[in-house]
Amino acid sequence: MNSHSEIKFPFYAKLSFLLISLTIIVFFIYIAHGIILPILISMLFAVLLRPVVRFCSRKLRFPHVLAVLTSVLLFMICISSIVLFVSWRIGDIANDWDKIQANVQTHYENLQSWIERKFNISYDEQLKYIQKAEENSLSKGASIMGNTLSSFTDFLMNFVLIPIYTFLFLLYRNLFLQFLIKIFKGHQQRLQEILVEIKGAVLSYLLGLMIEMVIVSTLTSIGLSIVGVNYAVLLGVITGVLNLIPYIGILVAATLSMVATLTTSADLSIIFGVIIVNVVVQFLDNNLLVPMIVSSKVRINALVSIVAIMIGGVLGGVAGMFLAIPMIAIIKVIFDRVEGLQAWGYLLGDDIPKTFRFSNFMLPRFDAGEEEPKDAAAEEPKQEDGKP
Q: Are residues 347 and 300 in contact, defined by beta-carbon separation less than 8 angstroms?
């Protein structure tokens, strides 16, 4: 028997190994998410800033350390500018607190009258329900305050650690690459292909998100300004930032916009305008911006995306939801390149054509998914060129 022959495991054994490995990884992330999530976010930011580092090193002739430091500082300035703008505009909203209270009281009284007419519940009964709810809220106030302070502390710590991690990942990039080469000795070609594809997928996804954020913020600001919403630019920026969280972020942003409208205007018709603006912007985003800008080299189907976002939210909150899509994209790249896992990579993917070419533009296909499944045997000759 040849000592170099590979051990062949049956399918059920491979499936068991895969499920056990995934369970251990998910459990480990759940236990140590406070440590792991900042590291993963820093890795994504390092991939995003790598072209900036290369530009500073090659074009501006900066030393490597100075190029990395400059890239991280520029990135931090951009993030800080957005945070300062939002904080400054929220301060303006606080100056209108008296008007906000008056409008809230008006809407509250109108809601009480509507409930009394529709459900025949008197004002006194409604007041009793509200007082009971307030008692329950006060009983949970201490725990909520503790969780809030803990979350704020974690945010400040991550705000300091993530730039440091990003700087170190960029600084020791070659060290990590050499480590992977030594670990997977004898598989350098496949490792290089996986790393190149992961870099392209993550970079195209993150750059697409940045462009999408700017466009969504601009369109939302213009739409809310036309409708007549106060602080339209602020709400547009918040919508663009929250849109970075797929599927969930836009719902939160729309809710915030409607709440802001209710607290700054007594006209309920503006609410419908806000809903229309968000629907139109999301239609353009999902059917034009995402296929044209955000679509990366690795496509993930919507079902897997939603499930991954839900799991990410359970494991790591908002940060986990943000990391869900790029992490699934990385997993798919690895599955596609590892023998025995290609079927799982195909399951994560999305081979349904979402666009068609018209002149020089890619337009959405609204009949996607109606085609009959293709014969796998018929596709085999197309893959002879070695392309994934």
A: no
What Rg do the C-alpha atoms of the chain give, in angstroms?
Answer: 25
Q: Per the structure block, which two tokens stand in for 167?
A: 């700087």
d(CA 360, CA 377): 32
Cα 321 to Cα 35, 47, 137, 359, distances in angstroms: 16, 19, 27, 37
Residues 6 or more apart whose CB falls under 8 angstroms from that of 121 comprise 115
On whether the CB atoms of residues 68 and 74 are closer than 8 A, the answer is no
Instruction: Label residue 369 left, alpha or beta by phi (over 0 means left) and psi (-120 to 50 means alpha).
Output: left
Give residue 91's region: left, alpha or beta (phi > 0; psi -120 to 50): alpha
Alpha carbon 279 to its chain centroid, in Å, reads: 19
Q: Is 107 within 8 Å of 270 (Cβ atoms)?
A: no
DSSP character at residue 290: I
Identify which of 200, 208, 202, 204 has the alpha carbon closest to the alpha carbon of residue 293. 208
> How far apart are the two ends of the chain, measured CA to CA in Å?
35
Instruction: List the chain residues with pLDDT less than 70.
Output: 1-7, 100, 133-156, 246-247, 262-266, 293-298, 352-388
Evaluate the CA torsion angle 338, 344, 346, 349 in order and state its sign.
negative
User: In 3D, which of 220, 266, 243, 341 has the Cα closest to residue 104?
Assistant: 266
The one-character DSSP state at 287 is: I
Using CB atoms within 10 Å of the CB of residue 188, give its burial: 0 to 12 exposed, 13 to 18 middle, 19+ buried: exposed
| pLDDT over 90 percentage in the chain | 19
Q: What CA–CA distance (Å, rounded) separates 262 from 268? A: 7
pTM: 0.74
For 361-377, letters b (16+ CB in 10 Å) and e give eeeeeeeeeeeeeeeee
Give the burial class of 289: count Cβ atoms within 10 A of its Cβ; 0-12 exposed, 13-18 middle, 19 or more buried. buried
pLDDT tens, residue by residue, 223-235: 999 988 888 888 8
* Residues composing the chain: 388
What are residue 355's DSSP bridge partners? 364
Residue with tokens 């750059």: 207
Distances (CA, A) of 121 to 109, 134, 366: 14, 19, 47
Round to whole Å and give the CA distance between 324 and 305: 8
